[in-house]
Amino acid sequence: MRVRPTPGVVAASVDADGCLELHAAYATGPGAGAGAGAGTGFGAGPGSAPGSSPGPGSVGGSVAGPGRFRCGPVGTAMWILLRRHDGDADIAAGMLAELWNTAPENARADLDIWVEEMRDAGLLCVQPAP
Questions:
Q1: Does the pTM of the predicted model rise above 0.85?
Q2: Mean pLDDT per 10-residue run, the chain (130 residues)?
């Protein structure tokens, strides 16, 4: 499978804290265009302990305003690795496992959860691998 940004979604910036801001021409997920809050499909969650997989509560992001979304450092790493490897989730998960010093299946599970949250928000789409 290939994970790609939905047309109209662009990475606007990454701040000094490693948080990625995405801009979307439109948003489809619950809470789209609203302020951050419960039900947005993004869990701000606590940071992960060094050397551990981040866990599902920390992989999302938050709605930053109409058409603007922020991902924490974990989501930023996932975005960058997917973009760097042409949306190949297997390669991205393998690299995340190395970075986090965790089992590849744990990294893949976290990546899959994050991709699903981003799909629900209308920021990512999944395509069959070529």
A1: no
A2: 93 94 71 33 33 40 73 96 96 97 97 96 88
